[in-house]
Amino acid sequence: MTTNSLSRKLMVADACCRHRLAHKTVIAPPSKCKPTGRRVRVRYVLTATASAAQASNGSDGQNMQHAQSVAGDAQHSVSQEPSPSITQRIKKLFGGDKMDMQRLKALGLGAVASYGCVSNVTYGTGLSISWIAFVQQTGKSPLMPNQWKPFLALYGGFWAAQHLIRPLRFSLALAMAPVFDRFINWVQQQTKWKRQNAFAGYLFLLGSVTSITVFGSIRLFAGPIAFATI
User: Fold this and answer.
1) CB 3.0 to 4.6 Å from 104: which of 95, 111, 133, 217, for a disulfide?
2) Do the beta carbons of residue 194 and residue 188 sit within 8 Å?
3) Model pLDDT, residue 115
4) What is the per-residue pLDDT across 163-181, written as a single tens digit (0 to 9) for each?
5) Distances (CA, A) of 138 to 31, 133, 155
6) 153: exposed, middle or buried (C-beta count within 10 Å: 0-12, 13-18, 19+)?
C-alpha cells in the first residue's frame, strides 16, 4: 500500500471521527478503555483510528509508522476475548445442573425424566455409600449429637464427584430419553391424564422408589444403628 493511499484512508477516518464529535458522540480515551464488552471495544477502535488520523497530519515517515502501530494495536485488542476467571469456572462447574436442565427442557419431558432418574441414582448411591462408610468407621449414626458435620465432610467428596461426572450423566440421560418418553406416554394412555399430570405421577413414583432404595440399603448394610439418634 502506497503512502498516498494510506493517507487518504486515514483522512477519511479523521473525517468520520470529527463527524461523530460534531454530533456529541463521546469516545473514551484508549487508556480508560477495557476491552471487556462489545461497545467498549468498538469505541476503542474508533479512538485508535482517530489517533492514527491525527498522526497522519505530519508529513514524515515516523508519524505514519506510529499511526500504523496504533491501528494494529487496536485490531489486536479487539481480537482478544477475555478468559473466564477462576470464580466463573467454579460457578460453571458446580452450577452445571441448572444449565443442563435448561437444555433438557428444550428436548421434552422424556429427556428431563431421564436426567432426573440418572441424577437420583448417582446422588442416592453416593449418599448410601457415605452413610454406610461413616457408620462402619465411627460406630455412630450421623443422626447422633455432634455427628452431622463429620458426616457432611465425608459426603462432600461424593457430592463433588457427581459434578465431575456431569457430562457422563448428561450423555446417559440423552441416550435413555426415548425410553422415558415412551413410559410417560404409556402412563398417559393408561390413566387418561394430561401429559403434565403423567409426568408429575412419574416424579412421585421416582422419588418414592429412590427413597425406599437408598434408606433400605443403608438399614440393610449399616444395621439398626444407622438411624439411631442417641
Assistant:
1) 111
2) yes
3) 92
4) 888 888 889 999 999 999 9
5) 61, 9, 14
6) exposed
- The grid cell for 180 is 422415558
Mean pLDDT (the chain, rounded): 74
Q: What is each CA distance from 204 to 31, 113, 116, 117, in whole angstroms?
A: 59, 11, 12, 12
DSSP symbol at 140? S
Residue 10 buriedness (CB in 10 A; 0-12 / 13-18 / 19+): buried
As a whole-number percent, the residues of the chain with pLDDT over 90 amount to 44
Cell numbers describing residue 11: 483522512
User: What is the sign of the dihedral through the CA atoms of 188, 193, 196 and 200?
Assistant: negative
- Return the H-helix or E-strand segment holding 47: helix 38-55
Q: Which three cell numbers stand for residue 214?
A: 437408598
